[in-house]
Amino acid sequence: MKKQDIIFWLGFVLLFLPFFVSQTVFDFYIDFNKEHGMITSFIKFAILATIGEVIGLRIRTGNYYQKGFGVIPRAIVWGFLGLTIKLAFVIFATGTPIFLSYLGVEGAVEAMNQPFSGTKLLVAFSISAFMNLIYAPVMMTLHKITDTHIVDNGGTVVGLLRPIKFSNIFVSLNWDVQWNFVFKKTIPFFWIPAHTITFLLPPDFQVLFAAVLGIVLGVLLAIASLKSAK
After folding, report:
1. Could you tell me how far CA 116 lies from the centroid of its own chain?
2. Helix/strand/coil for 214
């Protein structure tokens, strides 16, 4: 472990410490999250998912910073992706129990507001499965496109604002890695189980937990980049 690792992880601990040692800070988060869910989603993903990408950079290059990496543009993109993730959470968490009831699963809608049960586990798994099979591939592909756009434009905020060459970037993606690793392995073996846990949590903590999982996403993206480079 190098000095930069100690500094990084010390900063990481200090970021979360106030929520554990101060009831005032924790209560403020709960209240603000209830009243401004979309704003907190933007902030949480902008910070936590970007931290995940920085960790991924450390895995790939041995450093937490690299010229042209574009930490600020990535944080901006993750903030807006966080808005779509919150949107997906609301849509799938609301619609899936109704769909399961339509299929004949008794108590599917009520189960999510009750203590843990087999029905609640089934509903949480279904919400996660539908969200990750329908929404996640689109979000992951969009992220990869914006990630490429940021790097191609020098990692600057000005570069981020330039028109994205969607068609050119789309056809140049390493679809072997995107399909065989990102989609076929991480979605069924990590994201669906992980988000099943997410939807078993109280609503105030679901997006926060999903954002923390963004740190894991950074590591997975680093592995995908290493595979693409081979």
Report:
1. 25
2. helix
Q: How many CB atoms lie within 10 A of CB 31?
A: 11
Q: How far apart are CA 128 and CA 197, in angstroms?
A: 9
Q: Give the tens place of pLDDT for each residue, 11-40.
A: 888 888 887 888 898 888 888 888 888 998
Which burial class, exposed, middle or buried, applies to 80 when counting CB atoms under 10 A from its CB (0-12, 13-18, 19+)? middle
Q: Where are the domains of the chain?
A: 38-229
Contact predicate 198/128, CB 8 Å: yes
Q: State pLDDT tens for residues 138-150.
A: 999 999 999 999 9
Note the pTM of the prediction, 2 decimals: 0.87
Report phi then psi at 47, rounded to 5. -85, -55
Tokens of 208: 């926060």
Can you tell me the distance from the alpha carbon of 32 to that of 204, in angstroms, rounded to the nearest whole number? 10
Q: In whole angstroms, how far apart are CA 43 and each of 47, 81, 120, 224, 229? A: 6, 11, 29, 25, 31
**Rg of the chain over CA atoms, in angstroms?**
19
Q: How far is residue 230 from each of residues 20, 96, 181, 187, 200, measured CA to CA in Å?
A: 42, 40, 14, 22, 39
